[in-house]
Design brief:
Radius of gyration: 25 Å
Strand order of the largest sheet: 1-2
């Protein structure tokens, strides 16, 4: 048995609101980097020469490293390699290591990788650093949302998630401005070094401040005590094990731990894939993200072709930023007003996506620009209202110990099957049709598929498993009921 005194400790410096603010700032910096590397000030352009022999030197990353368009495109998506590989790993490690410390490790990797981008000397060096940026991001993406869900006020949980995810469009937009200003005024390398400096306090904070516990996971102190007790038994027991045999056992224990880790991961994956609510939610999210990814890549080009916009980049960017922020916040607030349940979340997902698809379709049917802007803006507001509810379902349809893996697999799935293949596939469709209006209408119609999939979720028997015990929590009888450290103080912060 573990002494009760080992369970009590000073409360963490983090309060619920501090935690939300810090996570939002981290998420904002992360997406500032996404926008910065795509900005003209950081990404730059190749050197060009006119027929008269006048040459203009290249700028930014592309100009300094003389990258072709394919290599330039690789840099913008290289982070996905690290993200897709590391997300399930961090989620799995959360069962044996403190999740808050894992975020600190991930943010440390992110900070050093971003600094490495600023110090890179050729294509491969910056490409590897961009992959490591994804590794660092993976820990945060998998584990931040469960922490927010644990510590948000009961009546505002979806609104808090919406605030967190609202930082995605806001950060990307800020990144365009930041990268453009810093890159043009100083140098593209300074933009990356600046990001590293902005992020540096947070991994330090993650290691110095008393770590938080995540609901569904044993406190590290209890695990360490149990391990220590087991070690004492093996050392002081009368089992007659020789010293050399003990050394062999310790050596083989590493292999055993790796095997157990893989076995546990396989078991958790099977549980996720057999959860119909989770599968339906992710399938709808994949279809949704397929359209969103293609919109972000091809939207300005389609707008320029259909409506002959001279400022297509600015117009589409502005609409996406405003609708992304307002729509995401509105979706979280509406679900809280409806009472946050999985069934209500599916109703909001299907309804908002269906109506948003109708408005977006009508927008592309307009021949005039003004009509397009009005209907497309309303459609985007409705479409972005799904961000908080879809992540709410991923968090609540699984046991607490599965939430990090649930978020990780959701993120991996929407990228692999959603926005990554959508841009080239829509490009193939446009090459075949050669009409951007028809291509945009075909693409937008996939929103109806997402709405239909989420509508099926309303008929599934769903249960909020936030307080569901599992086999890992059964050991909590040794240490008392496990609660997030902030739970006791959350009432005083609301």
């Amino acid at each position: 048995m573990i002494p009760k005194s080992a369970q009590t400790s000073n409360p963490s410096w983090f309060t619920p609101k501090r935690l939300l603010c810090i996570f939002c700032v981290i998420n904002l910096i992360n997406y500032v980097d996404r926008g910065a590397i795509a900005s003209n000030g950081v990404n730059g352009s190749l050197a060009t020469c006119t027929d008269s022999g006048v040459c203009i030197s290249g700028t930014g990353i592309q100009g300094d490293f003389n990258l072709n368009n394919f290599q330039d495109g690789v840099l913008s998506s290289a982070f996905l390699v690290g993200l897709l590989i590391a997300s399930p790993i961090f989620a799995s490690l959360a069962k044996s290591h403190n999740p808050f410390r894992l975020i600190g490790v991930g943010l440390s990797v992110w900070t050093f990788a971003i600094a490495g981008c600023g110090s890179s000397f050729d294509f491969w060096s910056i490409a590897i650093c961009r992959m490591l940026v994804g590794v660092g991001e993976a820990s945060f993406i998998s584990l931040a949302a469960p922490f927010i869900d644990d510590n948000a006020p009961a009546a505002q949980k979806t609104a808090w998630l919406a605030t967190f995810y609202m930082c995605i469009p806001a950060g990307t937009a800020l990144g365009y401005v930041y990268g453009g200003l810093v890159g043009s005024q100083f140098n593209w390398r300074v933009a990356f070094w600046g990001e590293a400096i902005f992020m540096l306090p947070f991994p330090i904070l993650g290691f110095l401040i008393k770590p938080l516990q995540l609901k569904g996971f044993a406190p590290m102190e209890s695990k360490q005590t149990l391990t220590s007790n087991e070690a004492n038994v093996s050392e002081n027991g009368d089992d007659g094990v020789l010293a050399e045999d003990q050394a062999f056992i310790r050596g083989s224990s590493v292999t055993s731990k790796l095997r157990n880790q893989f076995t546990r991961f396989s078991k958790d994956m099977q549980e996720l894939l057999h959860d119909r609510v989770y599968v339906i939610n992710v399938l709808g999210y994949i279809s949704y993200n397929f359209v969103i990814g293609a919109y972000s890549y091809w939207g300005p080009k389609a707008g320029y072709s259909i409506y002959h916009m001279s400022n297509a980049d600015l117009l589409f960017g502005g609409i996406t930023i405003i609708c992304g922020v307002l729509g995401t916040l509105a979706g979280g607030l509406i679900l809280d007003k409806m009472t946050s349940t999985i069934s209500n979340a599916f109703k909001l997902l299907s309804g908002a996506t269906f109506l948003g698809a109708i408005f977006c379709l009508i927008a592309f049917l307009f021949k005039g620009l003004s009509g397009f802007i009005v209907f497309f803006t309303v459609g985007e507001l409705l479409i972005f209202a799904t961000q908080a509810p879809v992540n709410y379902v991923s968090l609540r349809c699984v046991k607490p110990s599965l939430r990090p893996l649930s978020m990780a697999i959701s993120t991996v799935s929407i990228h692999i099957f959603g926005d990554v293949p959508s841009a080239p596939l829509v490009g193939v469709l446009q090459d075949h049709i050669n009409d951007w209006r028809k291509t945009a209408l075909c693409l937008t119609s996939i929103f109806f598929l997402a709405a239909g999939i989420w509508f099926l979720g309303t008929f599934l028997k769903s249960k909020d498993l936030l307080n569901e015990d599992d086999e890992e929590q059964s050991t909590s009888t040794l240490t008392g009921e496990r609660k997030p450290l902030l739970e006791a103080s959350s009432s005083s912060q609301t």
